[in-house]
Each structure stands twice: as structure tokens, then as C-alpha cells.
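Archive record:
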Amino acid sequence: MPNDMLRFVDVTQVYPAKREAAHRAEDFREIADRYAMPAAEEQAGRCSQCGVPYCTVHCPLHNHIPDWLRLTAEGRLREAYALSSATSTMPEICGRICPQDRLCEGNCVIEFSGHGAVTIGSVEKFITDTAWEEGWVEPIAVGRPSGRSVAIVGAGPAGLTAAELLRARGHDVHVYDRHDRAGGLLTYGIPGFKLEKPVVMRRVERLAEGGIVFHQGAAIGDGTSLDDLRARHDAVLIATGVYRARALDVAGGDSDGVVEALDYLTASNRKGFGDAVPAFEDGSLDAAGKRVVVVGGGDTAMDCVRTAIRQGAASVACLYRRDRANMPGSAREVGHAEEEGVEFVWLSAPAAFGGEGRVASVGVNRMRLGAPDASGRRAPEPDGSPMEVRDVDMVIKALGFDAEDLPTLFGAPELGVTRWGTLRVDPATMMTSLDGVFAAGDIVRGASLVVWAIRDGRDVAERMDAYLKVLGKQEREAA
């Protein structure tokens, strides 16, 4: 074993330094810079190079983590980048927004030994940012033209991953998206303090330079049906994600000032691009000077509370019906939010919103955890104490997302769905009930992580390529 490795005993775990909370809460820049080269090498060298790398096992992409950590420790950064990008189409994005504490780092062997996990995500970010700066990120190596055309509906991480890999196999690829910029939630859902937008846009530009055609502002069902795409292309991939906000069935929930999380985050991100956003400019989706309450406990809720802080809210509180230990969002994000001044009110749920047409207060029930529900989690229930009332000016609902009614939206009633509204696919082929129409990402698995969307995009590209090859063979045999 090289002397560069197995240094976890004498080298302590150090993440890149975060900016002071008071300063970082004034802008939408990422909260930490990346490592300098000596620090990245040193932290990578803490890897134990264990025989069974649980970091790789628990990574949805099964990235070769110990191998590129070793290469980084040895100063062989270009090789480290080549290896990290062999399994991931967006390593610098995963390095920034994956919940490493629940995936690779949370399953690091030296974490179990009490020495603190290797800072895998921060090293991954360092490797790829360096690769971009040094010009090591090469154009897509487009394969020999296949004569086949593919339509991808949705320009989020699943769709973009599939687009890149199908283009590399020589297919013509057209990406259709409802928005005016590609990236999906990477662009409009995730705030800049977690993922600065030039990081996303340079990936999109690379895809366009590789010959992938983007059709922006092209919502399927609004002038173009799924049947139109099927007639135009040899195969179709549906990778729309899930965007229908879950309802909050509380009296007064339709009052002015009660807004959806995605509307709020999209408005903020658009302002970051310099767009005109009337609903922000008239104050509807701007938290400046307001007493803000966010309802929910996932990563979207964390994005909302931290965005409100940066917009200059007078106060920001997060209501979550379970306790801290049962919160679905990243523990790191909760810690960042607390540092920036967010108040967390655990075991609490809104009972009613008060106000004359516009929200002015929220009645809060205190909760307790009762018996486990069907999912195995202890179900929250009111604890019987009197309802508390909080004065508010804005309430942001961040309760998660469900699938839109795609069969109706796409004019394709024969498109099979599950009881949750997600698309039903053959697990072996990833094809829907319609021949030649595939689906991947959140629209199949439900709201999930970006890294899982990338994995699904990688898998479906392989299945679609196999389908197109069979199609070509059948046509040749029939000729």
C-alpha cells in the first residue's frame, strides 16, 4: 500500500472551510470553497482502501471511490477525473448535492471506527472542478451515426444523462422541456448556495456542443402530443420528474401568502439568472421583511428556509411533525440552516391558517410519535395540548411532490400508471405500456435523489440502445 494512503489515524477529518454564517446568508454563493491541492491530497489519503468498499456499495452509481481517492492522494488528478466520470455524468454536481452523510460517507469504514469518514463529496467536487479548469473535460465522443432518432421528454438529471449516453452511441437526440433552460430541478429547484448555476449550465452547453438538440418551452400536451413524438422519433424517453405539490388540507390553506415550495424556489432562481419575475417583484414570492413559516422536513423545506434567510426575512421557522431523528432531509442541511438563523419547531403541524383573505397567523398543534404506520415509521399524532398561534406573513408548503397526470397531459390514455400515478415500466426493459416509449427517474420511482436519477438515466440509455439495435436488425431482415 503506498505511503499516501491509510492516513486516517494521524490525519483528522477536515471539510473545506465554510464561510461565516452571517456572511453566507447575505448571498446565494455556495457556502464553502473547494480544497487547495495539498489539502485534497491529504484528505483523500485518509481512505483505508478496505477490501469491501461500502462507500461504493451504497453509492447508487457504484462509483469507484477508493480508486479515485488513491489517485488523488498520489497527485494523479487527471486519472482520478477520468475514473470518476466513467460512472457518473455529473460528478461535480453529485459532489455538491448528494446526501453523502446518508450514502457513501455515512457508510465509510473509518467512520464506523470512530475516525470520521473520508470527505468523499468534497474531494469529488475538487477533482471535477479542477478538470473543468484544466480543460480535461472532453467533448462527447459521438459514436458512428446510427440513423436513429430519440426524443427525451424532460431535461433534468435523468433525461440529460440518457441524452449524453445515447448521443455517444451515435443516435440523434432531441430533448423537449417545458422550461426555457435545461436542467430541471438542478436549474430551477435547487438554490445557488448548494449548486451554483454556471456549474449546471456548462454541462448543458457541453451536451449542445455534442449535437444534442434542445427544444425549450416545449411542454408535451400543449400543441405536441406523445403520439406526435412517437411518429417523429424511433424511441421516446419520458423523464419528466414529479412536480405536483402535495396538498395541505388545512383551513385557510388557499389564503394569499400561502405558497408552494417549487413556485417560491423557481422565482428565486430565476431572479438569480436576472429574469423578470412579476410574482417576486410584487412581493408574492419574496420573503424580504416577512415572518416566514415553512411546513415540511425534507431537503426542499431546507432549501426554502435557507432561501428565505437570504432574501432578508424577518424570521424563519420550520414546522415538522416528527422529531429531529426522524427528519427525512439531510442532517447537514439542518445544521447549516440552524447556523444561519432558522428556528426548527419539532413535533409540530399546522392546524389552521388565520387572516382575512391573506394569511396572518398559523395555529400549530403539538405532536407526538405514536404507533408505527404501514411504512414502519411511528405515525405523528396530536399530543392533546392546546393549539399555539404564531403570527406570520408567508407560509411555504414543502410537503413533497407526486406525479402529474401524464396520460391526460400527454393525450395518451393507454399509458400505464401505478396507483401512485408514476409510470409503470417493465423492470427488465424500462419500457412503458407503449412500444418504444421508455421512462426513467422520479416519474418511475417517485420523488428521489439526483444521484438515483442519474443512475436511472444511465440504465435506460443502455436499454434504449438495445431496443434501437433490435429495431434496426428487424428492418434489415424485412428489407
In short: The mean pLDDT is 95.
